[in-house]
Structure formats: structure tokens, C-alpha cells
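User: I need a structural model of TatD family hydrolase from Halorubrum rubrum for a docking pre-check later this week. Nothing fancy, just the predicted C-alpha cells so I can convert them on my end. Input:
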Amino acid sequence: MPASDPPTSDPSTAADSASDPTRRPTDAAYLDGSAPDLPSELLNLPWIDPHNHAHTLSWSDRERYALSGCRSMLMVSSGYHWTPYKPVEASDVRFLWDDAINRREAIERNHFFEAKLGLGVHTGVRIENPEGLLAAMDDYCALDEVVAVGETGVTPSQHVERWDVDEQQAVVQAQMELAADHDLPVLLHTPNTPGESKRAYRDDLGVTPGYEKNAGLGAEPVLDGENPALEAVKRDVEAAADAGLDEERIVASHADANNTAYLMEETDCYLSFTIGHSWLIGVDAADVADAVDEYGPERITVDTDCANVLRTDPYAVKRAIFELYRYGIDVDDIRTVVYENPRDVFGLAE
Ligand SMILES: [Zn+2]
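Assistant: Understood. Predicted C-alpha cells for TatD family hydrolase:
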């Protein structure tokens, strides 16, 4: 509608206006004519995914990262879901590291985004004789393509076999010592507290739909206090102190309502909200927006944690960019969270 012909306040007569060709009033006739100033720069805002397992995805999934503007990613190789033998031996995890190193550059050349590596020993399964693996890790940490240690972090319960919690903490600390030696950041795996499900699945399927692992192989928890998930994170922070690793060199992934206040108020760690499988852990862009409102954007990132064993969404960060804006977050703060923070902590996209 031209400026000289302001919208009528009586829609029943709108279609009578000589300048309005619609036969009867449409939704548009009820608008006041002042369109919001939409930030079109969000369409092309580059973003970084500081936690995924994209080397386990399909070519087409990796292409989705490129198509939606991913500038750089941290592909995390740490034993848990991908070691075929149970119990797991150190050499199984080392094979996973080598597999990621083997494929990384081909992935970059195919898809144009930067792909760097995080290597670690995940404590979600017990590893026999981790000492040799940790010793070998020293040389891996010196590689240019390895920009982080992890994901790792004390886990309240294991898959297949229990791992004594003090032994776990020692393995986490040893990795943090290596990170400190090599001036690398650590990607921390923090345990989530599952939300209420409406109904239990039948037992005989043996798997959780959307998560391809043998659910029946979960071992009895090694941490069984009031809040084992938070206790695990506190042990990680204690391990970092004992390892001489600065808290600002830690990115705690899988932030949720159970660990956000502790990590933001009592530590200097970064917090990464995993939004690529919200159906599983119940965290989405609304939680990120709430955290930015409460604590500011300076220590917050988002990640997808996309992996072949999970129902995950390579478009999750791109979707969140728009969703954060809709939730009232400024463009500058969105850029800080999806791009600048992961760039600066992990030295990506430089
Ligand atoms: Zn992960």
C-alpha cells in the first residue's frame, strides 16, 4: 500500500479502496504498515560447531553443514560409541584417533569448511590399561590439526562395565595435564539429567529409539549421591585445578539446568549448549537465550554434537541463529555465541 494511502482501520472497507486490489480484506490489511527491521545479515552469519562427530556422519550430512554456513568445526574423536569390542582396550581408542586423522583433510577438501580435531579418552566406557594411551596422546597433542583435548569428563555410570570414579578422575586429570602442557583447551563432557518421559518403551527392543546403543548394557552407577551429574562436573573442575589447567581453557559441553548456575557462578569455564539432539537432553535455543540474558554472551557457545549413532540435526546451529533473534537476543550477541567464542577458545577459523 503506498504511503499516501494509509491502511484503513476498518477492514470491512479495505477492499473498497482503489489502491487495494484484493477482493476482500486479507491478513495484510490489518497490519499497521510498519514492518520490523529484520537483520538480514543473519542469513549469512558464519558459525562454528565446537563439538560434533561429523567424521562419523554421511557425506550428505557434512554437506548440510557447508550449505548452512558452517565456517569451522571441532570433530571429536574419543572412544565410547565407536569402539566395537567390549571391554574396550586402549588400542581401540587409538584406532579411532587415527581414523579421524586419516579422514580429516579429505573432509575439508570436499566441503570447504575448516575441520579440526579434538582427541580424548571418554570415560563413558571403561578402558583397560589407559596408561600407554595417555603416553601416546602427548605426541598426538603436538599435531597442528589437534586443537583440543576431549571430550572427556567424569561420568556417573558407564556402558558395559563400571569404572571406579577416582580412577576416572585420574584419567581426566592426566588429559588435562597434557592439555596444559600443550596449551590446548579441553572439551568437557558433562552428564545430563534426563527429563521426564511420558511413557516407558517396551523392554524387549533393547535400544533407545533415536540412540543406537544397547540400552540394556548400562552398568550400575559409580556415583549415586543426591546429584551425581553435578558431582561429576565438580570432580572435573577439581581435576583441572590439580592439573594446573586454567578454568577459562575448559568448554563444558551439554550445559543444562542442572549445571549452568554452578559453572557460570562458581567457575570461569565456558559453557556450551548442545542443541543438535534436543529430543534427548531437552536443551534448545530458549535455554541459550535465557543464559545469555542472565550471564551475558561472553562465556557461552552452542554445539550440535551430531553423530551417526544419534538422531541429530546438522542444521541445529543455523536454526538457533534465527531462534535466538526471535527470543530477543541481539545480533552482536548471537555472533559472539555462535562464532567469536568458539573461534577464540579453540583457535578456529583464524
Ligand atoms: Zn559428543
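Before docking, keep this in mind: The CA atoms of residues 208 and 294 lie 34 Å apart.
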